Amino acid sequence: MAPPTEQPDGNGPLGLLGGTFDPIHLGHLRLAEEAREALGLARVRLIPAGQPPHRSEPGSTADDRLAMARLAATGNPGLEIDDGEVRAERKSYTMLTLERLRTELGPQRPLVLILGADAFEGLPTWHRWQEIFGLAHIAVANRPGYSPHARRWPATLSPELAAACQDRHTADPADLRHTPAGHVMPFDMTPLAISASLIRDLIGNGHSARYLLPDSVLDYIGSHGLYR
Ligand SMILES: Nc1ncnc2c1ncn2[C@@H]1O[C@H](COP(=O)(O)OP(=O)(O)OP(=O)(O)O)[C@@H](O)[C@H]1O
Ligand SMILES: O=C(O)c1ccc[n+]([C@@H]2O[C@H](COP(=O)([O-])O)[C@@H](O)[C@H]2O)c1
Fold first, then answer.
1. Which residues form a coiled coil (predicted)?
2. For position 33, which CATH number holds?
């Protein structure tokens, strides 16, 4: 008989995947799913940004982006939704979200901030970025077209990011379980050249975006007339 699969426990590392999710797509969902498996996360919390700090106004409202994230997570017990950034009347700075989560979850629960390579590249421009390492681990996935691929670290990182990561780098997911925060771990995911901007462009130009995102999300976009 096969051994029982390890059940996710309430104190295991919690993955955090923030994004504008304009709209959420299969790149985001595979990122969450593959991070959960590769890093041994109990669950992954999707956190739609209410007011994304470093981009112009999204093409759909925060409430629509939250609704689409809820639809995308439906049926996957490994995912949960956090509406805190949508509800907050301020820019969606990750440090502030991590402080809120530490208040909610306590100082000991391992938190793993999941970033695609493009987001990670921009980390030194984030609000209080150096403090993030004190509140969460960071896991970085490859993304087609972006340079800081795990296998080429640290050569492809900017000097300040390389310096910040130097003593934090790990390739062992056990390190993410044994401490609440502080490690940086690159991991490989199935390369998917899907982006929300591609989907917005396709829909805006009257083309099909089917099979790039869940059908339920595509139906929502259609019934609410988004991105036209
Ligand atoms: N195809 C993908 N592969 C790996 N990571 C991804 C992918 N798409 C998005 N991500 C990651 O998901 C997070 C949220 O991304 P975001 O919501 O900005 O989506 P996006 O597709 O990059 O959007 P846009 O095209 O509007 O810039 C970021 O960390 C980003 O790097
Ligand atoms: O905290 C910051 O200063 C900060 C700056 C840029 C982006 N972020 C977060 O990074 C995630 C991805 O952002 P975006 O714009 O690529 O969708 C999302 O959760 C944002 O809130 C955070």
1. none
2. 3.40.50.620
pTM of the model: 0.95
Note down the domain range covering 21. Answer: 14-222
Q: Count of domains in the chain?
A: 1
> Average pLDDT in the 141-145 region?
86
| Nearest protein Cα to ligand 2, atom 18 | 19
Which of helix, strand or coil describes residue 18?
A: strand
**Is ipTM strictly over 0.90?**
yes
CB atoms within 10 A of CB 146: 16
- Confidence check: pLDDT of 89 > 90: no
Q: Does the pLDDT at position 92 exceed 60? A: yes
Strand order in the sheet with 137-141: 79-81, 43-48, 14-19, 111-116, 137-141, 184-187
196 lines ligand 1 (CB under 6 A): yes
Question: What tokens appear for 116 in the block?
Answer: 């695609």
Q: How remote is the CA of residue 28 from the centroid of ligand 1, in Å?
A: 6
